[in-house]
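## Example pair
The file below holds two records. Each record gives the amino-acid sequence first, followed by its structure token line.
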Amino acid sequence: MKFGISQNGSEDLLEYPINQVKGILYREASNVRHYENLKFLLNCYKTQEEAERALSLFYQGKLPPLPPINLNLGGFSMSDPYLVACGTTNFDVFSIYMMNLCSLLGIQKFLNLGNEYSDIKKYPQKVKELIYCERKEWLPKPVKLWRNKVAAHYAAADPKKEDNILTLMSSLSVIPNYSFPRYTVSSMNIVINGESSQLQEWSVTRVYDELVDKLALRPLAPLINTLLIGPNGEKDPLLTHS
């Protein structure tokens, strides 16, 4: 027996939950992109209020000419607007739902082979193999590590034999860092006794942008810096670095 919620007359009963998860991924990545653009505009304006006003105009397609840009390419600050507002929440939710999307895509392939839900119980290993293939295809290793060691549960709360001390520590203390022009996590590589955290640096928006065409995701608003041109019409390689 097959049961599910169809969408737009589709016979694919997993289309609805897949689109729902894609919507959640867009929501999380879009929020990060908002703060990436706000952070960039904070290099142009003296106050956050002015930067937010310019960002609102950008969303309306009316970005004004920007004041001189004094780029802060990176660094850590506990007063960072994204850190204060969101912490790692978007990274946590994004990593969990990227794993969920891969699971749905694997199950979708299994059902589209003519199988039914009762066959999932009969052939669980086949389902797991299909899901594993989807994870291998779409789930970057740093995102999977983040999901397993931070988002789903802290490594320090469920330590594995292979987890070193810095991994346990960073699972409780890692925070977003602005590395122009994106926010990332796990970018600070502290070494103690020759070991560093096994968590790896990644960016929600970079991962999302790279999957837009491949997984038919809704595109994000562009990074403002990629739209800027120099006085002679050239794109500044520093400003367009992504």
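Second record, same layout:
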Amino acid sequence: MKITNIIIFFIIALCVLFTIFQINGQEFLSSGSKSLIAPLFTALYFLNVTQRSRYFSLFLILFSIAEISTVFEYFKIDWSQEYLDAYYIIGNSVYILAYFFLILEVLKTINLRKVLKNYFIHVIVLLALNIYIVYVLITIVNPKFQVDSEYLIGVELVYNIIMLLLLTLALISYFYNDNRKTLLLFFGSICIVFSEVIQIAYFYIADQDLLNIAQTILFVLAFSFFYFQSKVKNKKVHFFA
């Protein structure tokens, strides 16, 4: 319990330090502070959860690796364009793989056949909304890339699709199970997706400290919800066949 309190203290301290560094324009230190938050949540999970999920564990590990690797962005001044592209593709691919394992974790909580039978209209509406959101996000990001960067656009497209797929499945999982675990999982998913969307706005639309701080708050909330749901059992309370 003492170690848990120490880790929680460091998470809070890193959030405060991130805000201070961000406001003072020290982006390397602010990025470094944020990059340690996910690994600390991962440590909390492995310390306090005895019945661990393989998929959720892989999500936390891969996401932590991807977060730590973000600090290398500030050492790429002399990198060639090929190295920059490779760094972007590999880094985002790790995030995509992490989200993929989180999606598998969500899929464990639902029966796809029953979902399609009882929520078919909901699924169609959500898919249409996701297509529109992906289109808007790509429209925002596309002008920032080079003309010959189809691979980068492809990675960005897959990233956005899998991120929104996570949110859709988490919502359907809550509809299907209607319990505390899936509610926390949905809250975590919506927080992390909004965090990613705000981060896109910060990178490509308006370089404002408030946006970066807002997306980090949502990021911390997301991992808090993910951690809490990992300690709750998925009690089946749905009533349809």
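Notes on the second record: The mean pLDDT is 85. The chain is about 80% helix and 0% strand.
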